[in-house]
Each structure stands twice: as C-alpha cells, then as structure tokens.
Write the structure tokens for this entry.
Amino acid sequence: MYVAVKGGEKAIKSSLKLLEKKRKETGTKSIEINQIKEQLSFAVDRVINEGSLYDKDLSALAIKQSQGDLVEAIFLLRAYRTTLERYAYSTAIDTSKIIIKRRISASFKDIPGGQILGPTFDYSHRLLDFSLMKEDEINSYENINNQEPKNKEFPSVIDYLNNENLLEQEINNLNDNPFDVTRDPMKFPASRDQWMQILARGDEGFLLGLSYSAIRGFGSKGTHPFVGEIKYGIVDIFISPDELGFEICIGEIEISECQMIDQFAGNKNTPPQFTRGYGLTFGYNERKSMAISIVDRALKSEGYGEEIKFPIQDQEFVLYHADNVEAQGFVTHLKLPHYVDFQGELNLIRKLRNEILQGKKL
Amino acid sequence: MNIKKIMHVENLTHFYGNQIGCKGINFDLYKGEILGIVGESGSGKSTLLKCLSGEISPSAGKINISLDQGGVKDFLSLPEQEKRQLMRSMWGIVHQNPRDGLNLRISAGGNIAERLLNVSEKNYSFLRNTGKYWMEKTEMDSDRIDEFPLSFSGGMQQRLQISKILSSNPQIVFMDEPTGGLDVSVQAKILDTIKSIVRDINVTMIIVTHDLAVVRFLTDKLLVMKDGIVVETGLTDRVLDDPQHSYTQLLTSSILQV
Amino acid sequence: MKTGFNFAYLDEATKRMIRRKILKAVCIPGYQCPFGGREMPLAYGWGTGGMQVTASIIGKQDILKVIDQGADDTTNAVSIKNFFKRVCNIMTTDRTTEASLIQTRHRIPETTLNKDQIIVYQVPQPEPLRKLEPKEKETRKLHAYKEYALMHVKLYEEISQFGSVIKTWAYPVETNNRYITDPTPIPKFDNPKMNNMEALQLFGAGREKRIYAIPPYTKVKSLDFDDHPFEIQTWDECCSICGSTKSYLDEIIINNEGKKNFICSDTDFCKSNLEKNK
C-alpha cells in the first residue's frame, strides 16, 4: 500500500532519533554551554538578536540543540520567548552612558573621547589559523595593554553637526507607548518604531543584501552614506513601574549601535541637510547594525518625498520579508504534502491537453 | 436647447510648497463638449488635469460635478471611495503613455473587461463582445483580443487604452497628450479615430496638450495656460484664428511657421 | 500529566485576545481581522494560525481531529495532534462524526459537518487578492470599497486563454454577498461544502496574522460568470479501496511502469464507507 499516507506517527519518532544520532555519530565530548557562549560568541549574539530574547545561556543552548543551524536556533528561542510573561516595558536606553568597548567614527578624524578600536576582525588577516586545529587548553586571557577608557559618557558624535543645523533632528516621542511587533500585527504605513523593531530582529543576511543593494545604486538617489559613529559596549536597562514612580535599574546589556549619515538634496523650499539612519542590536552585531541603519534611512524615503523606486525603500517589501522565522517557515512548508492540490492540477492539465488535442474549442 | 452643465470649476488653485501649480482657474464644461487645455510644459496644464481627475487635492477652489444620477456634487469633498468609483467607470483618463493606463499582464480583452467589471458585469460573452466591439471601433483587429499589450505597437496600445476607457460609456474622458509619444503618421490616424468616435457617441472630453494641431482638430473650446494661469479662453476657432493675448499670438504664429 | 505549559500552550491573556478577534471575525463574515499572532513551536506556514485558533477555543471536553490532505495519518497532522495531546491532555479521534473540533489543511471532510462542530482551517495566504495586488495598503482598500473587478478579470483571462477557469484549488469565494474570501488551498471540489455549512468555520493565518470566519448557515458563493458557471472536479475512476464515486480522489503511482490507482483523499470517509459496504 501507499506508505506516505500511513505511519506518520512512527516516521516522526524515527526521524527525531536519527537527528539525535547525527549529533552523536562517533561519540565526541558534549560541548558545554559556556564553551559555546565564549568561543562562539558571535553566533550567540546573532541568535539573541534575531530570537529577540537577551539571554546568552538560552541562546547557547539553542545553538547546541539545533546543532549549529542558527536559523533553527533563532526559531527555538522565539518559540520559548512567546511563552514568557510581559512584566514591563523598559525606558529608552541611553547609549551615551555606556561602558565602551569599541567606538569609531569614519566621518571625523578625531572625536571627543577618542576612537577606540576594541575587538574586531577588521584588521586581522583572513588566514586560517591552523594552530586552532589542535588547541589543548584555553587559559583565561590576561589583560594585555588594557587601557580602560577614561570617559564614562560618550555623547553621539554626529550631534556635533546639530549646532549648525546640518543634521535632521530625531523626533523625540519617548512618551508614547511604542508599537510592539511581538504583540500587534503589522500596520501600513508603518511607523518608525514598528520598522526599527522588525529590522532589529530581521535576518542579518536579508538586511545585509538590501543595504548592499542601496549603496550599489538600487537605493535612494546618488548618495553615499557615512558612518557617523559605531559603538559597542554595555548599557543599563531601566524600568519605571507605575507603582514606584521612579526608575530602577534591572540589569545591563551589550549593544551595538550605528549612526549613519546620509544626504538629502533638499528642494527650492528646504535647504539640503544631512539625514540619519540608525541601527541598534543586542550584543556585538556591528555588521548588522550598519545594515539596519542603511535600511532605516531608505525606509524614511517616503517621508522625505523621495521617489519610491527600489525594493529597499518599499515598506511592505522590506518589513514583510525580513523575518527569518517567518521566511524559513513558509519556504520550507513547501515540503508538506500538497497532493490534494496537485491532483487538481493534474486533472486540469489532462483535461486541457485532451481538449486541445481533440481540436475541441478555443 | 438645454445642454446640461456637468462640471463647474471655480477659482481652482494649487501650490507645490511656495510654487504655483495653477491659479484661479474658472470654467464650465457642458455635456458633449470637448475642451482643450494648451500650454507649454510648466504652464500648469498637467497640474490642472490632476486636480480635475482627483489625482491631487488642490490647495483651494471648487469643482462641482453633475452626475447622471445623484444631482450636483462637490467633487473635492467626495469620499475616496466615490472618487475611485468615478474614475473606474463614469470617468476615465487616457494617459500619454498607454502603459500607465493598461495592465500589461493581462490580455487586450481583459483590459477592457476590467473596466466593465467595475460596474458589475458578470457575463463572459458580453465582456467578450463588448471588447471586440470597441477594438473594432478604434480600428484594431478584434482577432487580437487575447493578445497581450506588449505585443502591440505603441499606436495600437494607445488605441487599446482608448477602447478600454470608452467601453464603460464614460461621462467624462480626460486625455493627457494622447498622441504625445507617437510617430507623426500614427498621430494623425489616432486623431482621426478619436474624432470619428467622438462624433458617434457624443462623449464629453478634456484634452490636455501642447500641440495646437490636436486642439484645432478635436476641441470646441480652449483654455490657454501660461505660468499657472489661464491667459485666454474661448471657442477654439476664435482663439486660434484671432488670438487676443500676446502669448496666444506667439503660440499660433509659431505653429504657422512650421 | 504535567506539561510545564499552560493548557493549550498559549497563556490565557493571549487566548482571550484571539477569542475576541474570532468574535469580531464571526460578526463580519469573510473579513480578515488582524490579530497579534504569536510564535508557535511549529514553523510558520505549517499551521501556526490554525493552531493558535484551536488553542484559543479548545476546552477539556473537546475531541480533536486533525487532518492534512484529508488524511489523519500524515506527518504534519500527527505532529499537530500530538502537540495538543501533550499540552491539553485531551481526546483525539480520526472519526469525523466523533470530533467536536477539526483542524484541517487543504480539505474539508466528505462527511457533512453538523452544528456542534467547529472546523479550523490552516491558512497560508489569507488575502485572495494578493497575487493580483501585492500591496496590503491597496488590498485593504479594495475590500473596503468592494472593488473586486480584478478578481473577475483573472477568471476572464483564464476562460479566454484556456476555455475554462483553471483555478483548481484555493478557488475564491464571496462570503455573505460581501467579502471575497480565500477558502485556503482546499480543492474547488470542497467549495460547495462551505455554503450554508452547519458548523462554524474559522480560519487562522499565523505568518500573516489574520483571522477570518464563516458563521454557520452563511452563503458562500464560488466566483463565476453567468454563462460560465462554477464546476467541481470529477473522476472517471472510483476509489480502488471503498469504491466511492462521490469523494475527492488522490492518484497513486503503484509500480515503476507508472500504473496508477485512485483512492479517497479522506481516509476516515474511505474507512467508514468500506465498513458500510461490507
């Protein structure tokens, strides 16, 4: 008899066993969560972002459970996150009060507080390090040449441009309740808080590709973005419960922030001015925060009255397709049986062919 | 004879920021009349057309329209739904570029059918026959009804667009440089077609163009625009043969030299 | 049995929110209500919308049936059924007549549903106009203003190109003389069952975050032209197991020469029919 219709239950059980077997093929030592957290920290940071849950332990667990399939790990973390109760919204974080680990500006040679290179692959040579093939033990790293930055405050560099009115102002609507993409369905036209959230948890590859398309020419007209400032460091998180009436710090998180400067040609009535794109991520995700800042700027096109011509400027195109949990689900659902529908198509194509071959109709 | 006034425009004005789009426009449009709006580019004639057809909301002024049913209405305060419904059936725009008015992904017949389906016509044979009728009326080969717009020449695409618009028996047709993108020889043929149809079905039209030959050939009445305002208005023959305003004189003399 | 999760997985506040949306959807038959869809532990596109609707309305007394392609035993149906067994500890069944709640993908059971039953459809794309108009901003207007010409143009195109409408599944319907509705990818064979159905029909789209509904005894009309009326599929063959000539048939290749057989897509119907005929 036809096997595919029967025995679904048994098949699923065996499939799960085979998956587990794949992880234990030759019985190597189990990876510890801490090892993943420290030695695969970039993967962990990507998963907390797109999983939109700041929990590095669970992120590491998800990576382990998904056997390194990061999209799967992100999905695991999301499915867990959705069951968590919502206690409070934090107040807006202040990224000028940051324990800085890295901070650079590509627009100004020197900036108050200094350029701080911090940990980065940027100037490493991308040569495979064969000594890692067999690394016996990792000793905890002694602080070499670790000069703690003296400053405690790092105001946004590009705000210096404000003095001359050269830069558009960010609108301050901190008092409004933010749109919550994890609780409300998307609305169009989308508001900025809505799209910033979608971008923050959007797929890095998708956003990277989009932002690349914009700077290659499939973006708003002829402008080249400049990195005003990139920051990576630790900030405090506050909540302000109604019962208390004052703010309390509930912990600290690592963030990466990118302020991108772009241009707006202006018109007869409005003198040209610099515009901004902004990107913020959990953890150390500098590349993604840059990509977000470019997409953010492009999504603002409509507000500037610019012609909407390219995918990156199209709200519905960008926001509906950025989420990799949604995207991977829908693409892979094609694996599910479709034989009822396919039977319909089979029937039809036979009927149409017959009609035409028999010279009937048309 | 009592001819029905179907559009009354009063002090219609539109600004783009501080820039004048068009200013202080007044006219009346009567049933069966063909009104030409001429001027060079930047004269405000396209802005005026956009205001009249509901594409933009003018900064000031009044447009009263008289519908076949429902009496006189204030067009500018109509809800979006009614404006859309008007544009989908009772009114129609023939765009300069036929691609703006046609759905390139559906067949010639489908394009015409869409217009009719907007007024809930749910009979396939009727859609088919009406499609063929209008293709023939605009001197197209009705055997090509199932072909797609991109397989037609530019002139044929324009004929198809005209068929589509006229098929729903519209009350007002707006034409924006209807022959603008075409070769001179094709232009003449399309103008002939438009003229013969117009004589036939007594349609009301507003034609925007920079081409004086077009207005002389087709229109009854003329507005001459410059820098956003109407500098001269009157019966077409009178304005062209005896222009009063210096700008109109310049326009008409330039065409004579050609 | 302790599961470590709330009854039916979702927290009560979320379930209440979804039930409110369902009520709204029932009040406006065929209208797509946006809702705050949650992530589920199943991939988007695999039935998360249907699962959220089911999770919000399921009670301890319910008897659940889950089908995919008409069959109770397909992997995804089993997986969803197991999920609810695990987080609800409720009874499940393969019998259409025994079920109080039926979650389905791509079929409506052949057995007529009654007024004490609810059928929940999994919806991949709730917007019937999406393929014709990609923008949500615009399609919402098209529905609001009842501007449905585009949909009939599509049917016109198919007739003019192929001689008949070639849409064989997800064949659009008009609900209660108002909204054009996507019946989900069921074969058009099942469309007539939606009309005046005694059972409540609920539709959940997880990825697109929409819920819509067709209340009991509601008119559901498959779109067509006066002179090209809607028709359903027919087969020359009958089911090679139960001999049914009235059910939707799946085609099965039974050997390497490509010889084929036809069997009922609705496995429960096939089984009951066989027992009856014995």
About this structure: The mean pLDDT of chain B is 91. Chain B touches chain A at residues 17-19 (CB under 8 Å). The domain at 5-257 of chain B is CATH 3.40.50.300 (Rossmann fold).
